[in-house]
Amino acid sequence: MKTKNKTLALLEIVVVLCLVFLVAIPGIAAEQNQAMQKVSESEVMSASEDDFVLGVYGNAKEDDTIDMRDLTYVKLIFFGKKPETELADAKYDGKINPLDFVQIKLIIVGKEKELTIIDTAERIVTVKKPLERMVPGTKNFVEAMRSLKQEKDKIVGVSGYVIEDEIFFPEFSDYPNIGYWPADVEKILSLTPDAVFLYASYQKDERENHTAGEGAGWHQKIVAAGGNNIFSDLSGYPEVDPEEVMTRDPTIILKLKHGRAADPGGYDVDDPTGMMEMRNEIMNRTELASTTAVKEERVYAVSDTIYSGSQCFIGITYLAKWFYSELFDDLDSEAIHQEYLTEFQGLDYDLDEHGIFAYPPIECGGDLAGIPDK
Predict the structure, then answer these.
(1) How many CA atoms lie within 13 A of 374 on its CB side?
(2) Closest by CA position to 163, among listed 152, 174, 151
(3) Where are the domains of the chain?
(4) How far from chain centre, in Å, is Cα 31?
(5) Mean pLDDT value across the chain
(6) Judging by beta carbons within 10 Å of its beta carbon (0-12, 13-18, 19+), is residue 212 exposed, middle or buried?
(7) 77-117 pLDDT tens trace
(8) Are 337 and 362 in contact (CB under 8 A)?
(9) Do domains 134-197 and 207-370 have the same CATH topology?
(10) What are phi and psi of 105, to 5 degrees?
């Protein structure tokens, strides 16, 4: 018999926002039939078959959503017509019965009283709904909640990074401060939250002096934009000799600094000098002078603001333009960015007047590498 975890202490959910990235990368095409159809064995997806599985009990098909097909499949399990899947037990009581039918129907219409989920720490947690008092522990979570039009008064505390960022998060400047990372647990408990959103794990960030390899988030963004990472044979964020970059000869070099304090771009910057200097530092490195990227001046500086976290989809559009300028001639990265700020974040911020996010202007494409500092 499965054991329910009735107490929600720390709930870790990372929401990756790609709501406004409407451009298809070449070679990727899909057609979806939204009409009701009979569920077959081939429709039951597993983690090995699909990139994302929604870890919510009731997702009987184990794909990226819960819909009427899940209800149909659970009924077929109940009548012995289909094999049981791990997430089919919507009520999480160790058996498949009509209570699961009811729970799935409630989830579909958004009326469920509780959800049992698998969080990013691989724990099974039952969440009582509605959540009235929430503490998002990072800027990304606050941003995600705002995109989803979550009521501001349900957020009862935020991180110091949110409070300090008065341009992007002006409405939270006077909110209770739970500290940075790791967060102040005593402060969080004093706010009596229903849920706390944190990352499942934390690792000291040492990416500034490394080049991204296979499995790293920066690598995944290169691939998503159709690029070829010259260090894809390595994993994580390995330390790489700059001379090895010269040997592998990238046709494009991307340079960014991780961390708000070090970033020469962003919403609070209107002067491109910092981004220009960051690019010029790469252009002037003796050991990189013979690379195709430097010789053809295809070296780009990009702000971490649009390359990491919830806004990474914006950075990916920049990469796509740099990689395939002719193919994506009608892709307007700034228009996508502005729509995100206005429609999803509700900000009165004009990109024509403020902000520096990339330098130089978008031009052409090819292979790419991130370059470590000396």
Answers:
(1) 8
(2) 174
(3) 42-128, 134-197, 207-370
(4) 24
(5) 80
(6) buried
(7) 999 999 999 999 999 999 999 999 999 999 999 999 999 99
(8) no
(9) yes
(10) -60, -40
Q: What gap in Å lies between CA 371 and CA 208, rounded to an integer?
A: 9
Question: pLDDT of 241-280, one tens digit each?
Answer: 888 888 899 999 988 876 556 789 999 999 999 999 999 9
Alpha-carbon distance of 221 to 226, in angstroms, equals 9
Burial tier of 179 (Cβ tally within 10 Å: 0-12, 13-18, 19+)? middle
Q: What angle do CA 283, 287, 289 make, to 5 degrees?
A: 45
Can you give the pLDDT at residue 347? 96
Residue 361: cis peptide before it, omega within 30 degrees of 0: no
Q: Specify whether the CB–CB gap between 242 and 287 falls below 8 A.
A: yes
CATH 3.40.50.1980, applies to 207-370: yes
pLDDT at 39 over 80: no
The one-letter code for the residue type at 146 is R
For residues 72 and 60, what is the distance between their CA atoms, to the nearest angstrom? 9
Q: Specify the pTM.
A: 0.74
Q: Tell which residue, 138, 180, 132, 173, has the closest CA to residue 156.
A: 132
pLDDT digits (tens, 9 = 90+) for 152-172: 899 999 999 999 999 999 999
Structure tokens at 20: 């406004």
Q: What CATH class is the domain 134-197?
A: alpha beta
Q: Which two tokens stand for residue 181?
A: 């990372």
The residue type of 310 is S
Question: Do residues 96 and 74 touch, judged by C-beta distance below 8 A?
Answer: yes
